[in-house]
Amino acid sequence: LMFVFWALVLFSSISWAKEDWRVRLEQAKVYFDLAQYEKSKAILLKLVQTYPKEVEINYYLGLCQLALNDLPEAKKWLERAKELAPDDILIRLNLAWVLINLNQLEDAEKELALVEARAPQNARLWYLLGIIDLYRGDCKRAEQSLTKAEQLNPKFKGEAEYYLGVCYKMQGKSISARRYFEKAVKVAPETSWAERSEKELVKLPKIKPFSASTDVTYQYDSNIVPVPDKDSLPEDVSHMDDSRAVVWLDLGYAPLIKDKGRLGINYKFYNNWQFQEPELNLQIHQGQVNGYYDFNISKLGARLYSYYLYQLAGNGKDYSYYSTTHRVNTCLLYTSDAADELDGVDLGGRRI
After folding, report:
1. What is the DSSP string of 7-44?
2. Three-state DSSP class for 241?
3. Of 116-130, 159-173, 267-281, which one has max mean pLDDT?
4. Whole-angstrom Cα distance, residue 119 to residue 179?
């Protein structure tokens, strides 16, 4: 009977100690969820001395150190947790994030490769792969991975668009950067990602696909018509004192705007009214298709520019047909190879 009594006492003590450990762990988790990381860490450090092989203790210690920005310690504890639970995907994902922040990209890729083999549809997996590509400046590949992350889990919208905007801005591609910042504002309104994107948009040049300008002037004692080509002038220009009104209208539209090129369409209208000699009236309709493409020749930047122009002119009191002009022009320009630098991009404490 005495043996049974002491056995029951010992078993109760062991059960109570085990229950106390669980309670303390849950308390540490609560502190962690409340962002009281130091309190959580203090409890976990005591627990790990007695229970060094408990996965959750090591795992949450790694998360606490990550939250406190102690990356080497975070790596140490998460690696211990991984050794204890090598099939746990969540542990490997968090370890990969720490490795990315330590710029140990190849090690992070190894962790993510194992995750992809077990859970290829995990959204955070593709998000982290995209972040690795951003570190390497491969915006195109990052776009593929981050887009897949967004498709699998919409919570990554906004964040992914913002970082893609940062990536393209670092490469001097302001048009693509603007497109992604604008998308972040649209898909994640009233979030920190939208706020950061709006700040970046202010710094970028605005994209203007439409343009319009006009000019109306009155000239006294003038009988010379300022047109771009002498063939557009009437044959007979007198020396009679005269006055006239002139209207210029220029409309433009760019249906294609890219970082390395642009395609534009322009329409120009010119009309002058001679008050004394209406036979010298001149009207011009001009249409133009123009574009350019930027590329590199060796270490020099280059721009290939080309346009086609069609012009119809009429003169006299009724602006009867006077001439038709077709013109094609192509030129190659060398430019500097300098690109825009990243200027004050707000990464919100994240390492990119």
Report:
1. HHHHHHHHHHHHHHHHHHHHHHHHHHHTT-HHHHHHHH
2. coil
3. 116-130
4. 32
Average pLDDT, the chain: 82
**318: burial class by Cβ within 10 Å (0-12, 13-18, 19+)?**
exposed
The phi and psi torsions of 120 (rounded to 5 degrees) equal -65, -15
Contact 44, 28 (CB under 8 A): yes
What is the three-class DSSP state of 229?
Answer: coil
- Provide the pLDDT for residue 19: 58
The gap between the terminal CA atoms of the chain, to the nearest Å, is 68
Backbone φ and ψ of 20, nearest 5° = -60, -40
Q: Which residue has the higher pLDDT, 39 or 175?
A: 39
User: Cα 122 to the chain's mean position, in Å?
Assistant: 23
Q: Is 149 exposed, middle or buried (0-12, 13-18, 19+ CB in 10 A)?
A: buried
Asked whether the whole model's pTM tops 0.85, one would answer: no
CA 29 to chain centre: 36
Q: In angstroms, what is the C-alpha Rg of the chain?
A: 35
* Residue appearing with tokens 């123009």: 290
The DSSP 8-state label assigned to residue 129 in this structure reads: H
Choose from 24-28, 210-214, 228-232, 347-351 the range with maximum mean pLDDT: 24-28
* Structure tokens given for 256: 């294609």
Predicted confidence band of residue 83 (pLDDT cuts 50, 70, 90): very high
d(CA 215, CA 244): 14
Minimal CA–CA distance to 75: which of 53, 88, 55, 92? 92
